[in-house]
Amino acid sequence: MITLDNSQWNQLDEMILNLHIQKDVTALQTQILERLAVLIPHRRSFFDLCTTQNGQRVFFAPVSLGTTSRTQLLRMVYEKMSIAAALPEEPLDLDK
User: Fold this and answer.
1) CA-CA distance, 90 to 69, in Å (whole number)?
2) Model confidence pLDDT, tens digit, residues 11-40
3) Distance from CA of residue 32 to its chain's centroid?
4) Which of the ends of the chain has fewer CB neighbours closer than 10 A, N or C?
5) Pick from 8, 33, 3, 4: which is nearest to 18 by CA?
6) 77-94 pLDDT, tens per residue?
7) Which string of DSSP letters, residue by residue, matches 28-43?
């Protein structure tokens, strides 16, 4: 079983607190990716938002870290997700 030390719990607490106080979505996405990289070392990360339109998933507002070619990363991620994106899903109400 993997356990977290106090420092890691504190980092998670700060990340969660930031979810509630951050008003800028792009800044929120970036900060989560940066803080996650401290907890879980990795080379690249990606955070976008999704809604549905006419039964199709629509991805928007992408933010990525650790890549020199954001366009290439976005293309790769969206191509891999295209099969999942074609699955019908209940519409997401972003006004709630």
Assistant:
1) 33
2) 889 888 888 888 898 889 998 999 888 888
3) 8
4) N
5) 33
6) 767 766 455 444 444 444
7) HHHHHHHHHHHHS--S
